[in-house]
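Lab notebook: predicted structure, single chain.

Context: the supervisor wants predicted structures on file for every construct in the current expression panel, including those that have not yet been purified. This is the next one on the list. No modifications to the sequence; it matches the entry in the shared construct table.
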Amino acid sequence: MSRQGAVKNRAPAPIQISAEQILREAADRQEPFVKEPTVKIHDAEEYQAYLVGRRKNYEDNIRYRRDHIGTWVKYAKFEEQNKEFERARSIYERCLEVTHRSGELWLRYAEFEMRNEFLNHARNVLDRAVAILPRIDFLWYKYVYMEELTGNVSHCRAVFERWMQWIPDDNAWLSFARFEMRCGEANRAQGVMSRYVETYPNAKSFLKYAKFSEYELKDYDLARKVFEETLKSLDEDEIIENPKVFQNFANFEERRGEHERARLIYLHAVKMLNLDGESTDKLRQDLYSSYMRFEKKHGDKKGIENLVKLQKTREYEQRIQKDNLDYDAYFDYAKLLVDDDNFAQVRDIYERGLGALPPGNEKKYWKRYIYLWINYALFEEINCGDVSRACEVYLACLDVIPHNLFTFSKIWIYCAKAHIRANKLAECRKILGKGIGILSKSKLIAELKKVIEAYLAIELALGEVERCRQIHLKYLELVPQNSQEWTTFAQLESNLGESERARAIFELAINQEELDMPEAVWKSYIDFEINEGEFDRVRSLYQRLLEKTSHVKVWISFAQFEALQDVDVSRKVFEQGYDALKQEGLKEERVLLLDAWRVLEKREGTSTSVGKVESMMPRRVKRRRMVGEQEWEEYFDYHFPDDKEDGTGSLRILEMAAKWKQQQQDEDSDSSSDGE
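Prediction complete. Output recorded below exactly as produced.
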């Protein structure tokens, strides 16, 4: 191996040379052109001597470079220019003895004979050439061109026939057919193209035959038959690889004004080739673009909608193939097919979607999946009118859901209502009862509440009061702290006119040790007694409630209730509430109570009573208090006229002043020590 020398110095040279300078130096150093002397010949002897000298040079060159065809051709052209045709012919023959496989040499030889109008010699040369080199097409082209140029049609046809036996390429067959057309033999031309497609049964040959029939033969029926034969004869794979077959066929029908036939061809192509606007194949894109242009030009609204639907169908299929958990694609795909009333295919789409279970056992992954079941059931019931099949879909969905981890109350409810619409009330109750049992064991309280509420609504609509009571009791056994359920149960009894039952339920509710919203139960109980007109019971309830809590809203509500009966009693309640809140030291609550009392007095009382309440209103004072060690914050306090100054506030101020004085002394001592 040769060792490359390493470049030691890569720095630029001190003297730079430009490209222009290099070109100038090359032009200056070029040797001057020496023109050959002009030879003037005065007589035949000098002419012959000149020819002998030139021939000797050519012969010497041939001896040195015997295989170089260019030397032989130049020698022959020299003899041709001097009208020595026999010598030129002899030179070509000598060259053929050296290399007879050169098609270019045979062509030069034939052109020499044709140029000098030796037709028989030219025919003989070309005949020998195509016999020796039958696969070189330009020799055949030159041969048939010469025969047609001389008007020898029969011999030209015979040459074409000899050529066709060697099964040449497409252009040779087209040249033969066009020759027949120039001769006025349309039937012969059709026969040639028929033999052509039999020899080359592919899409390219059929398309050329159809184009020839349309533009050359002007036989449109034949062109249509050729296109149809193309779709019948070719394999499906080959047709898929050549979308241009459909495009040319549809364009032909469009040119002939057969728009419906063209539309059918495009639709067949779209279905067969799975065309869409996002194809990467250029031929497919061109075919789809042609279809779009055709529909915009000749189609109606329905045709364009069908085109868009086909495009959407391909898009949804691609999305599903890319991600089988893309449930939105199933929704849109099924909706698209429902509009076409293609119910069998819609079921297939839903079944494919339902077979793709969510990956995890978490409820958030199942939400879209469950709606796929719901849409499937609604499709069977609404679009197909088969309620029984919808019930089967819901039951199958309930079997799929892992109820020990989570559930969907809507599925239980929808399934039960579907059975009601199917006139299967007993199955409806069984499903809801089963759901309550499963949800109770799984401790899914929120879902259980929804199922029970739906069950109650169904039984109440049917007038089954005893069943409603049993359901309420069952729910209260499971969730006794649910205030809303106690209230709903009592309201049910109240609506049925069972006041004692309702009162007993309320009593049980307020005696529960734990309730999530006890104030709601008390308020409902009080409103119930007010509606019943039992005012003594209402007062008793307020007294019992005030024993449990002295909230300001309870005092205000109690006073407002008494104001409906007797304003003086209401004033006493306000006074009692004011004193109770004062003892507890709740200033803001006392302000709220006084505001409500003042509103009552302005509405029901006199100026004296209003002035009394106004005199009890506090004064709003801005104060400061320490937060942390050295931080203060401002706040608003209320100073009531009837509050006694017990001195505690002054003592606290003194303590704070002493603390501040001590901090100042400490700071002064630190500064003096630093100075020393």
